[in-house]
Amino acid sequence: MTDCQKKAVVLLSGGIDSTTTLAIAKKMGFTIYALSFRYGQRHQIELEAAVSIAHDFSVAKHLIVDIDLRLIGGSALTGNIDVPKSRSVEQMGKDIPVTYVPARNTIFLSYALAWAEVIGSFDIFIGVNALDYSGYPDCRPEYIVAYEKMANLATKAGVEGNQKLKIHTPLIEMSKADIIRQGIELGVDYSLTHSCYDPSAEGLACAECDSCFLRLKGFKEAGITDSIKYKKTKGWL
Questions:
Q1: Is 204 left (phi over 0), alpha (psi -120 to 50) or beta?
Q2: Is-contact 156 116, C-beta < 8 A?
Q3: Could you tell me which of 55, 165, 172, 218 has the fewest CB atoms within 10 Å of its CB?
């Protein structure tokens, strides 16, 4: 099997990081199997973005899995907890925020791992980032190393396969600005993406949550205009 024939499962949320990761995987010659989740998130509009992105990149298959993490709760994204707004970079880096969804990346990667086994893939891509990551523990390099080790111990593909399962994290040491520049070079249409944790009923990004802040900060530092629609917010727009 040549590199151009290799299959990769790419976790696709519809945001900047996952979309850029998908573009990188495609540039590397992988046939893309995109995986998204409807997990009870308040910003389900991100799934509309994921569908548009998957279509734009002509992926081999885009699978949307339903998991209701609202039953577990514990996060502002899945429960009746206010999404933090207008926080500084210092505040974001102080504690793990309430937008952290318990074990989310572990859950998502487990589904990706299962699908990879079924389609005969040894490569999984996830757009985690250890710089602009809002304090989430499951975005750190040591977490990915540990998960990859577990994946090769816990699967038939890992035990009997001719090669080891690999969790690719091409963005893990990049700033948001560098990620955006990389995506532009790869032809990513960021107008298709969505990042806001608390969008309006019309789908407008709030410009005040941590995710919007990091997105806007990244575009500003990259010297590129963000083309998605925001509510009018003093200081940014």
A1: beta
A2: no
A3: 55
Phi, psi angle pair for 7, to nearest 5°: -100, 145
Instruction: Please state, in angstroms and as integers, the Cα–Cα distance from residue 149 to each residue in 13, 82, 107, 137, 157, following that order.
Output: 24, 36, 16, 17, 13
CB 53, CB 193: distance < 8 Å: yes
Question: What number of other Cβ atoms are within 10 A of residue 66's Cβ?
Answer: 8
Supply the pLDDT for residue 2.
42
pTM above 0.85, yes or no: yes
Q: For the ranges 78-82, 87-91, 156-160, 184-188, which has the lowest average pLDDT?
A: 87-91
- Cβ neighbors of 90 (< 8 A, separation 6 or more) are none
Integer Cα distance of 190 and 180 in angstroms: 9
CA distance 90 to 84: 14
Asked if 121 contacts 33 with a C-beta cutoff of 8 angstroms, the reply is yes
What's the angle, vertex CA 19, arms to CA 15 and CA 24, rounded to 5? Answer: 150
- Given a cut of 50, whether residue 195 has pLDDT beyond it is yes
CATH number of 3-222: 3.40.50.620
How many Å apart are CA 194 and CA 211, to the nearest integer?
A: 10
Q: Which tens digits make up the pLDDT trace of 101-132? A: 999 999 999 999 999 999 999 999 999 998 76
Residue 133 has pLDDT above 80, yes or no: no
Q: Measured at the alpha carbon of residue 210, what is the angle toward residues 209 and 216, in degrees to the nearest 5?
A: 90
